[in-house]
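Posting this for the archive.
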Amino acid sequence: MKNIGFSFHDDLKVFKEIIDSYDWDFCQIQLNYMDTGYQAGLEGLMYAKNKGIDVVVMEPLKGGKLANIPQKSKEAIESKASERTAAELALKWLQQQEGVKVVLSGMSSMDQVSENIKIYSDNTPLTESELEAVDYLKSFFESRIAVGCTGCEYCQPCKAGVRIPGIFELYNNLTVYETVDQSKSSYKGYVEKGASSLSCVECGECEAICPQQLSIISQLKDAHKALI
């Protein structure tokens, strides 16, 4: 084995502990312009870079969500980045982040393969106007978040079996990225397993310990209406 590394799926504190525990050759983290503070995030990227550890990035397009953006946001960025696709903006943004060695992109067609090769064959950084387009997209998506759940899971396990963070993630994906069919299909599975909002007994224990002080009971009802 020539290169020793790890794939990471926890918070920044744990990431630093793992980085400091061994003389790693590389690590793999999730990173895109929407997830700069998620898990390892940009701070983790720089922490690894300063330790001389190569970083492999997964989810550069957040499961395709940053490529298939709502029409409203497409129209808004045309004046700032008329020659760039949404996917190109996201991938080029990663290309100019110091410390990123490899970007993993899940491709499902030859057109996507060709597009990615074309994007990364050119090292020209994004212009100031194009970076403004990325900032606009980030602000646009953040403004559409329905529930400010961080997925900390302090509310888990729920004694009624409700998968609160998972439901809110599906709800936010629907409102932010318009993943209507995907979110509703996943929620149907929650209903079948007795883990949906329908199982909530409104005991209030989750609200009492939520660090974000979310109105979980009422927001679960809102999520159910949107996802059913």
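The radius of gyration is 19 Å. The longest strand covers residues 26-30.
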